[in-house]
Amino acid sequence: MSLQWRSFPGIPAFFDEDDPLFQQLLKEAETRLPPEATSEPKAKKLKKSQPRRKKKDEPLFSLYTLDELWRKSSILLIKNILSYLDLRNSCKLSRVSTSWKKILEKTVILNRGVVFLDWRIPAAGQRRMDAALSGSSSWLKLFKPINFQGIKHFVCLGPALNFAIFEEYEKLFGFQQSLSKVTFCSDTFTDAKLLEIASFLLTEFEQVTFVNCRITTNDPEFHFDKQFRSAVWVDYQGNHPRSIKWDLEVVIPRLVFDENFNKLRGEEEQQAWLYNRYDEMDLIFPYGKEQMDWLDHALDCLSGGQIDAVKHADKKFLEWRPDYYKSKMRNSGVRTEATTAPRDLDMLDLAFLGRLLVKMNKAKKIRGLRPPPEPFPDDFNVRIDF
Amino acid sequence: MSTAASSSTSETIAEPGLKIKVSTKEGEVFELDEKVAKMSQVIRGILEDLGEQNGGDDSVLPLTQVETRIFRKILVWLKYHAGHDKEEAPKAEEDEIIARFCEEIPEWDQKFLNVDQAVILEIMLAADYLDIKKLRGLCCKTVANILKTKTVEQIREMYGIENDFTPEEEEEIRKQTAWCEDEPPRQGSNH
């Protein structure tokens, strides 16, 4: 018997060469390798199997220099490029040359009366900007190279405009009579703040629009605090008191506040209006029929204490939702008896109950409950307070 | 309509339908699907002027300002967008301005334009010549995004722009805009 050392993928390094199994494996391995394969067959094989690079995949290089190409660019093209700059960058680059300054001074005209302020800048730049804007400095002075004649629409991008005090908004927007519209883009708000800003700005302007903004709704704030010890929930969730809170989060593609919003009376009406808009945009329950069917089935899976727990949560949820909220929501066509009173569920009910059941299932398995076709956002929080 | 140069290479698109032949500056001939070709407003205009009688014969539309290597690149963009873009309802001018500023450049286009800045400028010039509004806009926005990362001095050097301010003028404007200067960009930037 002799031991041989051969290196083949899938075969132990040492083997009895008279062993029939070894002979078989060796034969198979040799047929897998090219004839010239030696101790490093993998690398060689990989190298051989590399596809030849096609001509069109090769990186494309210019035959011209940047300044040659820039000289070739028409004034219209250069204006087009510079029209993509926001106020801060327009101010900064107006120092390049007198011709750039002349173009950039007319940023407002270039963009048909729309000006942009991009707050998505590095932290150091943000600090300088904040410092420059603090105190009594007027915004108009900051953007001095820009001619604001004819400004109609101010667009703010990014997350830095959640001013705590409205004085800052006055500084920013209060400099031109012609300004009639303000838009916030890619910002993050609570819905209370959203309504507050819209209400405030609509006293001066015709329209306030929010585009691609993330809104967290503190109402519907469904909240068992730790003093609230329902026997049902303590039994269902264990012996620890918990707080349960739901903050619905939506991303609005575009939401316009105009004079019609100003006709609404009081915060509750405004809040209901907001929910109605979310519902119209399919943001509250943005799923198809499969998800509704899942919820219908999930409610049928409940038994005993689980039904009690859902009824109890639903009761609390309804206590928070006055009738006008309910009347603003679309009906989903799903009917269940696993709630406080048998009823047709509206879209907000679906969003709430769907998340509740997923959370309950995590705490204690609901028999027969499958995961929903589409996962719900994780905005339903259960906190354990020891 | 002029005739194609004798040395020609055809790039045929698989879809059936009317084919449009165009030739580049070097005389290379490309055969495009009608839908792809008409994304260029210049080609669309010529075809409309000619009453769209060009499909069945050997006539070729000359694109004398577009070099073959850039046209090949643009063709990739045209084919992709002809197949993927949905019909969009026309927007009001103001909404269009806001959308082009606020919307991020889609991932595919970002990858497409992840090339040397000079190539972006060449594509932009060609898109301008061919009047492909969307591609021109993407290039302009990409160049603007590059400008945002540069200092004034770097921009002057990059494009060979002369500083024609008097020292007094420059000092004044520097004071006005000092607050919006960025940190110097990191070395080794691709653009």
Number of helices of chain B: 9
- What's the SSE pattern of chain B? EEHHEHHHHHHH
In one word, what is the shape of chain A?
elongated
Structural class of chain B: mainly alpha
Major sheet of chain B: order of its strands? 2-1-3
Describe the protein in words.
Chain B: Residues 167-191 are annotated as: Disordered. Chain B: Pathway: Protein modification; protein ubiquitination. Chain B: Residues 133-180 form the SKP1 component dimerisation domain. Chain A has 386 residues and is of the alpha/beta class. Chain A folds into 3 domains: 3-49, no CATH class; 73-222 and 247-280, no CATH class; 289-384, no CATH class. Chain A is 43% helix and 19% strand. Chain A has 18 helices and 11 strands. Chain A has helices at residues 20-32, 41-49, 66-72, 75-82, 87-93, 98-105, 107-110, 123-133, 139-142, 167-173, 191-201, 231-237, 259-262, 266-280, 289-300, 305-320, 323-328, 347-363; strands at residues 3-5, 14-16, 114-118, 153-157, 181-185, 188-190, 207-224, 242-257, 331-336, 343-346, 380-384. In chain A, strands 3, 4, 5, 6, 7, 8 and 11 form a 7-stranded mixed sheet that branches. A two-stranded antiparallel ribbon of chain A has the order 1-2. In chain A, a hairpin with an 8-residue loop joins strand 1 and strand 2. Chain A is elongated, with a radius of gyration of 32 Å. The N and C termini of chain A lie far apart (70 Å). With 191 residues, chain B is mainly α. Chain B has a domain at 19-148: Potassium Channel Kv1.1, Chain A (2-Layer Sandwich), CATH 3.30.710. Helices cover 50% and strands 6% of the residues of chain B. Chain B has 9 helices and 3 strands. Chain B has helices at 34-37, 41-49, 68-84, 93-102, 107-112, 117-130, 133-148, 152-159, 167-177, and strands at 19-23, 29-33, 61-62. Chain B has a 3-stranded mixed sheet. The longest helix of chain B is centred in the middle third of the chain and has 17 residues, at 68-84. The radius of gyration of chain B is 21 Å and the shape is elongated. Chains A and B meet through helix 3, helix 4, helix 5, helix 6 and helix 8 of A and helix 3, helix 4, helix 6, helix 7 and helix 8 of B.
